Structures are given as C-alpha cells and as structure tokens.
Amino acid sequence: MLASDGDLYGTTSNGGTADGEGGTVFRLTPNGDGTWTESVLYSFSQFDDGFEPVTVPTMDALGNFYGTTLCGVEPNCNGTIYKLTQSNGQWHETIVHAFQGAPNDGASPFFAPVIIDSAGNVYGTTAQGGMYLPVGGGVVWEYIP
C-alpha cells in the first residue's frame, strides 16, 4: 500500500520473531537515491495474536492500520481482525475480533484487504464460515471501532 506519507506498507505471511513463522507488517521508506529502507512495524507471535497476515494493511484517518490474519488465536485457526497503533515510536497490536467459524461467524479472511469508510468503520470478507455448513461459504463483516 502506498500511503500519503510516501512510504510503502505491506505484510509477509512468514518471517518475524516467532521462529520465522508468524509474519510481519513492514514499511519501505524511500531514501531519495532510488533505494529503500525496510523496517518491521510488527512481528506476529503466531498463536497469541493471530498469524499469517496475507493481505495489505489499510490505514485509517488517524494513522492506525487494520488488517486480517489467516489464522487466529488458539485453539482455532479461523483468522483475526487486527489493529496496529503507534505509541512512543512503537507499534502495538490489538485483536479487535477473532473469527469463530461456522455457523455464526466467518473464517479465513485472506482474499482482500479491509476497507475503511469515512466514519471509520472497517469492512471485509471471509472465504469460509457463515451459516452454510459444513464449512460455510464465507461472510461479509463490519467492525465498528
């Protein structure tokens, strides 16, 4: 994602500090000479805060990031919606929703980045879950901060 600050933001589904498997959110900053400097904003710890962020994070009007992870907090692996906020130069993650899967919730939110409307509400889709069993056909979800 190219942000208004001129930096590029993205995710890796692997890597980071969790034995190389949790994934990261990173920033690439242009140096002015055609090169870029990479910095890792956040490393997912694998099972405590979701892991495998496979879509690009989306920045809200306040500079926070929202995104999804393929797998979620144990004991399930249905995915999460996360929020990254910056405080004193450090990025901190909050899970705002851990998907539970069928029949009452979505699972596997990995095909598209989230969308944020002008009121700050966050929207997305999942590939599984919902009311159509056994695994469901997915859901469209809304998170209201």
Structure description:
This protein has 145 residues and is an all-beta fold. It has one domain (8-143). The chain is built from no helices and 12 strands. β9 and β10 (122-125) form a beta hairpin.
User: How many helices?
Assistant: 0
How large a portion of the residues is in β-strands, by DSSP E?
A: 35-45%
Report the biggest beta sheet as strand number plus sense, adding barrel if it closes: 4 strands, antiparallel
Sequence stretches where pLDDT stays below 50 over 5 or more residues? none
Structural class: mainly beta
Using the CA coordinates, give the radius of gyration: 15 Å
Question: Count of DSSP E strands?
Answer: 12
The average pLDDT score comes to 88
Helix content: under 10%
Query: How are the strands of the biggest sheet laid out side by side?
Result: 4-5-6-7
Distance N terminus to C terminus?
22 Å
List SSEs in N-to-C order.
EEEEEEEEEEEE
What layout of secondary structure does this protein have?
Elements: E1 8-12, E2 24-30, E3 36-43, E4 58-59, E5 65-69, E6 80-87, E7 90-98, E8 106-107, E9 115-116, E10 122-125, E11 128-129, E12 140-143
Antiparallel strand pairs: 1-2, 2-3, 4-5, 5-6, 6-7, 8-11, 9-10, 10-12
